[in-house]
Amino acid sequence: MPKLKVTQVRSRNSRPQQQRRTLTALGLRRLHHSVTHDDTPQIRGMIRKVQHLVDVEEVDA
Fold it and tell me: Domain total for the chain?
């Protein structure tokens, strides 16, 4: 299964509570923190909600 590397590149400060919770659910804790997730529709939907705060790249498993 393909993997996605998600990196937080913008601050969560002054963002709506739902966006902050989405970043936490993705496992992002601070700026320039990266996590790897399986490429699923649920993860893609979470990324879409905070796409202005994160960078996403596909990586090989």
Answer: 1
